[in-house]
Design goal:
By secondary structure, this protein is mainly alpha-helical. It has a domain of 123 residues. 66% of the residues lie in helices and 5% in strands. It has a two-stranded antiparallel sheet. The protein is elongated and about 60 Å long.
């Protein structure tokens, strides 16, 4: 249990530090999420039109029948809007603390899964690959699926997916270093 806790804590530190580097020092996220054109005008319309935080789709499916929705979708534009109605401090301490708690839960889960499978993976590289595959799985079921089913822009989805895989590759380097196959007692 101690090795899982230590591996999880080290993995969480790597996840957290990589996230900071990826989002603040590398240009790839900003390149896929440009500033909103005519921001003041668009925000003004949003504030008068939407009063509740939520995820909104357009064209709206619930307000029209399927053939009308399908025609509106084909004509365009279409999209998904993630909207927060009230302002908040994006640099508040609780956001960063909760972010680390999430990283810790993720890394502990990865360490535990690797500990269950480690007996089949004596080689360090195989253990790193196992944790990296967790990132590949997460990328496929989240960002790549959203790109396919919700038509999220490919460049955004690919960067998010690659970032997730790199996150688990890096975390896997330390988690696999701490989680090794347990030695079997010698037969007498």
């Amino acid at each position: 249990m101690k090795r899982i806790l230590v591996a999880g804590l080290l993995g969480a530190l790597v996840i957290y530090i990589w996230g900071w580097i990826s989002w603040t020092m590398l240009p790839w996220h900003n390149s896929t999420m440009p500033d909103l054109p005519n921001e003041d005008a668009v925000i003004g319309v949003l504030q008068t039109s939407i009063t509740q935080t939520g995820v909104y789709q357009f064209p709206g499916m619930m307000k029209s029948n399927e053939p009308v929705w399908m025609e509106n979708y084909k004509r365009g534009p279409s999209g998904v809007l993630f909207y927060t109605a009230k302002g908040k401090n994006p640099m508040a301490a609780d956001i960063f603390v909760f972010g680390f708690v999430l990283a810790l839960i993720e890394a502990l889960l990865a360490a535990w899964l690797l500990s269950v499978a480690a007996s089949k993976m004596a080689a360090y590289v195989k253990r790193v690959l196992f944790v990296t595959c967790l990132g590949v799985f997460a990328a496929l079921v989240s960002h790549i699926s959203a790109a396919h089913w919700m038509f999220f822009p490919a460049n955004y989805s690919h960067v998010m997916a690659i970032d997730l895989v790199v996150t688990y590759l890096l975390a896997g380097l330390v988690i696999a270093w701490r989680i090794k196959p347990e030695m079997q007692p010698a037969m007498a």
